[in-house]
Design a protein that fits this description.
Strand content: under 5%
Number of strands: 0
Order of helices and strands: HHHHHHHHHHHHHHHHHHHH
Number of helices: 20
Shape: globular
Largest sheet: none
Helix content: over 70%
Radius of gyration: 20 Å
Structural class: mainly alpha
Length: 405
Amino acid sequence: MGTLSFIRDNLKFLSAGFLLTFASCFGQTFFISIFAGEIMEEFGLTHGQWGGLYMIGTLASAGLMVWAGVLTDRFRVRRLGACVLIGLVAACLFIATNTTLWLLPLSIFFLRFLGQGMAGHIASVAMARWYVAARGRALALASFGYLVGEALLPLIVVGALSFIGWRSSWVVAAGIAALILPILLYLLSAERTPQAVAEENQSTGLGDKHWSRAEVLRHPLFWMLIPVLMGPGAFGTAFFFHQVHMAEVKGWTHLQMVSLFPIYTVTATLISLAAGFAIDRFGAARLLPAILIPSAIGFFWFSLSGSLFGAAAGIILFGMTSGLNSNVPAAFWAEYFGTRHLGAIKAMATALMVLGSAIGPGLTGWIIDLGLDFAGQLAWISLFYVFGAALAFIGVRNAQRSLVG
């Protein structure tokens, strides 16, 4: 089936995935970190303290994802997605009205769990389960919601902060999430249950079987992929989290810094779409080890660059990793371990990603307080990425020998 025909015939389901990934933006670090300066000033926090509180909320989110992610194997996206959106509206209003320091990690927890965790998880599991031959394209098209939000929201919010303030901006975010809810319910009015879809579109993995989460955790491949699973979440998150700090270090304004983000998003969008076609044609396994390589080069380049023009080259490479990471891992789990328990398996991977996004800002913020700015840390992060890519290549190559079909 051609791509245009595929989109036309599946527009409602693909649009639902788009809306869920867009809604996930309100719990993503790139959005929350826009308000870092205002939050640190209001609550009297250093970079390390803010990163530590953020880490606490995100760690709790990662722990809950291990259990909650399994719900995608049991409930329809329509029902589960609606519950997540309602919770996300409440989470946005919570952080908008909170004035108590000890409640700040709790507000971060709700945003991270419902936004970054569940909204994106529901969308990617649905696309990977509902589609087999067109799995890569479905994941890529659904992920555009996140990419559109990543391109537009920082510029809009940074421009609006001086007019409506940071708290009112969160109220607007709650309103947008509330508007998405009835649209999602309409789009998925004829949705099938996960169990029915699993029976109709079964796709086995290694050993020609559907793996349980316990079996996946006992396979060495899973553990060799941990740097790939955690790396983008840890240090891609840290990059956005410290955007205000980075602008200060480089001598740019915050608005100049976020003006680079659309370049990043355009790159991520194009690479995500290209990766979707490549997944459908060649499989996800060939792409997975390569996820970290562009960022390894881009972060090193960015650390050395003093101009916005030079930084743009690093941002482009960073965007390539984001584009690959938006759909390749989800397709990989279905391809290598089957679709019957996909929600449970991907929940574990999502929890690791969220765990990484908790460790990254906290660790890098602590190092900033010790005297090494984030730009100086990027070179060391690049080395970690090279190591993770090599480990993933070895793991996939060894496991590929037992892949049936």
